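Structure (tokenized):
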């Protein structure tokens, strides 16, 4: 049978792992959003360059 300290430590590790996974997911989603916006902006800039005859 596990003692209270071991149970507490296991619960803490699980909470840290879940929180870490959540932060990782948030960072990945943020990175994808930045790339998407950057790509749209770059496409707009390229179109303006062609229109301006550059």
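Design, position by position:
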């Amino acid at each position: 049978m596990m003692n209270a300290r071991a149970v507490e430590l296991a619960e803490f590790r699980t909470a840290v792992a879940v929180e870490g996974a959540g932060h990782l997911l948030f960072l990945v989603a943020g990175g994808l959003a930045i790339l998407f916006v950057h790509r749209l902006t770059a496409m707009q800039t390229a179109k303006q360059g062609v229109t301006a005859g550059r």
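Reviewer-requested clarification: The mean pLDDT is 85. Helices lie at 4-51.
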